[in-house]
Amino acid sequence: MEQHLHSGDARHDAAAPSYLAAVLAHAFDLHRAGQLDQAAPLYQEALAIDPRQAEALHYFGVLQHQRGAHRAAADLLDQALELEPADAVCWSNRGLVAAALGQHDEAERCYWQALQLHPKFADARNNLGVTLQAQGELEGAVRQYREAIALQPLSVDAHLNLGTALAKLERYDEALEYYEQALALDPYSAEAHFSAGNALNAKGDSAAAIARFRRAIELRPGFANAHVNLGSAIGKLGNYAEAEQQYRYAVALKPNPTNLVCLGGSLGAQGRLDEEEVFYRRALEIDPGYVDAHQNLAWLLLKRGDYAQGWAEFAKRWRPLDYAAIAVEGVPEWHGEPLDGRRILLVGDQGFGDQLQFLRFARVLEQLGAEVDVCVREPLVPLAERVPGVHRAWSGKAEGRYDFWAPLMSVPSCIGTEVATIPADVPYLFADEAKVQAWRERVASVAGSRRKVGLVWAGSPTFGNDRYRSMHFADLAPLGELKDIAWFSLQKGPAEAQLVEAPEAFRPYDFSAELHDFTETAALVMNLDQVIAVDTGVAHLTGALGKPVWIMLPANSDWRWLERRSDSPWYPAARLFRQGVLGDWKPLVKSVVEALRQGKKQ
């Protein structure tokens, strides 16, 4: 957001001594030219001559603000306002200083005072909008920016600020209109291209966003934030190598925790685990509480099998908004206190697969003496209520009378789970027997005596690494070489449509339209001999049901599958197949085909 420091028009008292007037005039000229170090001693000299010279106090205060000495600036501007309480420009500049000190209420009061004195003061309107926006009052900010533009139609900053406020209100098309108007006023505004890129990215138009970020960097080569956002937009398309390069530029320009974590993450996404850790550690040296660094470091440590340190880092992963969304008001969070005779609520966090994987810990806490309820996403409730150790399962706002609550995925950090102590008794999920029976005849009628294998080749497109953890159905074509196997599609979501182009020689039976929820999928899985899947919720579901599951993993696989292992301590019936090169599924699928052939021979 752009705020205007209003210089005003310096007034000179005709009766003032000529030397003082000359000193001030010289100070103003140097100040306007940006020569702050040369102007400062002249203001001091003027104030030595006349400590009550209001303009000297005012503009020396402005200079101190520009230097970052905001408290000294506030004191000088307050003295000026005592002498000239009707100076609207001074009030507006005092508001800027208050905002710089984080005193938003005081800043707002100063801007309103300026506007009472000078209702058509466009800069004060703009600055008031910035302060309102900083306090989350977006609609009020929009009104002030619109008024500023009406008063000063050529203000690039007001157009940019209005666009930013509209973007925060998710009114991206309107925001883009104002960014374009800003560019019509100033075609070389790197900030306008950058902001337009952010709005386009939020709309999902990655290609257009990337073009805007590149243009912003052309116009301002040292624009660190544009390098970061360009890296993120490119990374979203799966080009982690170029994303890494952009993050490296950003770190060179501005080695702050955000940029360091982004660079580390781009290395991890390429499977370069030994290189990424240093950047998370550097970020935490700068800001020990930086949650994204803790989160990424946790994933890295857990993937290495260092659960002692990994879970400790994982416990520090919360952003305030994320935490507030699941916290149970009035109930203390559990951190490992004795549970005998206590009631605890486990609240599901993250995705379906995560919650399916961690529901196993309900039985562990029950064995510690707790009565365990779970609050999970609504589609999981029918399965969760059958999990051993769960007293009651429900969905909705986490609340109720409990002794403790805990995020489901925080339980391992509270009980000191190691790789060797993962509770892996399966099954711990159970399908509805009536639904299992209902599917039995249907599966048998199409499969006969053939081996029955379920397939899942893609996950949710909204998942950050989906481009690499998912494949296209055509990548599985070599499976069609195998005879005497009846294939069943368990695929849900947009990738279902890929079956339309499937060849007759390899066209799975597709009951996906009837898989309305996880209970139906579980019942169908119980009628199959095994499931072959990419890393999705169905893989977790199958493993937790105790059914054999082969999981096809990208080279940058998730932390839970550890490194280089072909088995999983989380699911005894799982077998892992790993890519050698990121994005190349062919060798992996060939290994799956060979493993299926070997299974037939045994």
TrEMBL record:
Say yes or no: keyword Repeat present.
no
User: Tell me, what is one Gene Ontology molecular-function annotation carried by this entry?
Assistant: glycosyltransferase activity
> Is Nucleotide-binding included in the keywords of this UniProt record?
no
In Pfam terms, one family for this protein is TPR_11
Name by which UniProt lists this protein: Tfp pilus assembly protein PilF
The protein's matches in SUPFAM superfamilies, at most eight in alphabetical order, are given as: TPR-like, UDP-Glycosyltransferase/glycogen phosphorylase
- This protein's UniProt keywords: TPR repeat
Protein source organism: Paraburkholderia phenazinium
**TPR repeat boundaries on the chain:** 54-87, 88-121, 122-155, 156-189, 190-223, 224-257
PANTHER family hit by this protein: PROTEIN O-MANNOSYL-TRANSFERASE TMTC1, PTHR44809
